Fold this sequence. Notes:
The protein is an alpha/beta fold. It has 9 helices and 6 strands. It has helices at about 10-20, 30-35, 40-50, 100-115, 175-185, 195-205, 210-240, 245-250, 255-265, and strands spanning about 55-65, 70-80, 85-90, 125-135, 145-150, 160-170.
Amino acid sequence: MDVSNRFPYNRKHEEDLKRLKNFRLLDDDFCTKVFEDIECVELLLRIILKKDNLKVTEVHSQYNMKNLQGRSARLDIFATDDTEAALNVEVQRSDQGANPRRARYHSSLIDANITEPGDKYEKLPESYVIFITENDVMGAGLPLYHINRSVEETGNGFGDDSHIIYVNSQIQDETALGRLMHDFSCTDPSDMNYKILADRVRFFKSDEEGVLTMCQMLEEMRNETALETTKEFALRLIIRGKDTLEEIAEITDLPLAELNHLKETRKI
């Protein structure tokens, strides 16, 4: 279905439609929209974790979590299942974005955010941090890498129920996981193996409502990028110290409250 004639013509919109056509599930912004659907997340987790009966009870995309110091991380996908396990899925095309310390940080954030004051440690839910990577970041040619703590001297598992998993999307064989990774690399939903994913991808690429949703998301991303650029410029002006906050507000169109916040957080 050609949706390009259903929207007012402009260059940005034409570029958005071309970009949308080439989106894959390996593109995290597109992936997070597709996996807002709970059934798609269930399929993904059942295959990766080899748990055919896994039942997702809640799912959030682009989910912000903060540590005690206020530093936040935006999780691509955060879900819980019917055993109360916490599951974070990250899609990374960049090897640097799948750094082991980032996986560790996400794991610690989840623990800090899913507990309440007075909770017993024994009640801490099982957690999974799953990185789906475009490249084989571990370099051993395997489809899956499971990272679990163990006792060095005995080789026994530590048993803290904290799991980190790396999924290598380069392996696209005829296994369930290989077929799933094939789907992650497709731009055309007609080439995909799993109907539930293909239908969801087709909605965002061909359906008028879905395309409009994606174009609005891309516009919001542009606005966010422009705002961050303006904030960086304002911060340089604050550091330079030649202009008052009122003058910087006039130059950048940022509210004084935002400029004061920038100044306070950077302790200038």
